Amino acid sequence: MLDSHCIYNGHLISLYEPAISFTNRSFRYGDSLFESIRFTNGKIMFLSDHIKRIKLSMTSLRMNVPAEFTSANIEQLMFHLLEQNQIKNEARIRLTVFRNEGGYYTPQTNDISFLIETEQLNCPVGYTLNQKGLWIDVYAEIKKQANKISNLKTGNALLYVMAGITKNSLKLDDCLLVNENGHIIETINSNIFVIKNGTLYTSPISDGCIDGVMRKQILDIAAQNKILAFEQSLTVHTLTNGDEVFLTNAIKGIQWVGQFKNKFYTNEKSVFFTEKLNELTK
Q1: What is the pLDDT of residues 24-54, one digit of tens each?
Q2: Non-local CB neighbours of 122 within 8 Å, separated by 6+ positions
Q3: Which of 104, 111, 234, 263 has the fewest Cβ atoms nearer than 10 Å?
Q4: CATH of the domain at 181
Q5: What is the reported pTM?
Q6: Distance from C-alpha of 173 to C-alpha of 150, rounded to nearest angstrom
């Protein structure tokens, strides 16, 4: 059976073996972090960036980082799990870190446990650009605060859950989230890029967006190809005045936006960046 095992604190266990109790702090308080990582063409993509981000996030949340929590060790465990779950190509890997149980809001320890899961993806090898552009709009009912934990991928995700419910009710493909200043910062599961006259614009980390691993890759590719890129606050006007809009996340790579309000977009740069991403999978 595929995806029948996971790894808990370095040990392979059955998915059906009880390992986490109801007093788990991730369950009770969202006291956790996670990374969604793409496995494609036999490679775990950008793992060092994912591990660097989660370790920095652990430090921000004052979790203790074990000495053995390294890219090399985690990579070895992930490949072991992929083999046990009989996954040879496309998969989503989730790495979750949570503070060990004990205490109420105030924890009794800052030691951590970690969980690795895999999920088979039924998709072509590499990153595939969506054929039909996404239809998106703004979700402004709950605004995201910009603070020291805004950029972290934590288990406290009610804002994204509520935006997802609204997305479904409006039959949209995604929703844009805004901060307290009304700046557009990200979507439910992606960072956002706007292109105007060949120049890239993306929301700055200081506005409260997730510090995305794929966001970093796009900025790196832009620099390598001498494409101007600016991190600046985005507004509705920025989007409606843009030539192209695309979204980025670690699993799907790039998704181009076809429509925002009454504005329609092309996807020339989305195609270019997808091609460059796929060169990194070989």
Answers
A1: 999 999 999 999 999 999 999 999 999 999 9
A2: 90
A3: 104
A4: 3.20.10.10
A5: 0.96
A6: 23
